[in-house]
Design a protein that fits this description.
Length: about 110
């Protein structure tokens, strides 16, 4: 299914807002959250697991603060147009048969 590989914009919007992240255990989402210690991952089919994960995060103010700080830092450093835009422009150039060596993002 398409949602299995989806990259929802709201994840990145929440990161840029400096929020701790809670996501279902889809591989792409889990990798981002776990690799950068942004929050918690849960099995969406298990309400008890969702509650446990959310309560564990909410009950640990130091970890919650760290996850919020990490989310904002990673959004600013990694998941932004300056970083990702060059890749997208390069992909478009490759698909159009042009030179894909441009590593800089371009304003749109």
């Amino acid at each position: 299914p398409g949602y299995y590989y989806a990259s929802p914009n709201k994840l990145f919007e929440y990161m840029l807002a400096g929020l701790a992240i809670a996501v279902s255990d889809l591989p792409f989402l889990e990798k981002i959250v776990c690799d950068h210690d942004l929050g918690v991952v849960f099995n969406p089919a298990d309400p008890r697991h969702i509650a446990e994960q959310l309560n564990a995060l909410a009950g640990n103010p130091a970890r919650l603060r760290l996850c919020r700080e990490n989310a904002l830092r990673v959004a600013r450093e990694r998941f932004n147009w300056d970083h990702e835009g060059g890749k997208l422009v390069g992909l478009y150039k490759t698909l159009a048969g042009g030179n894909a060596d441009s590593g800089k993002a371009h304003a749109v």
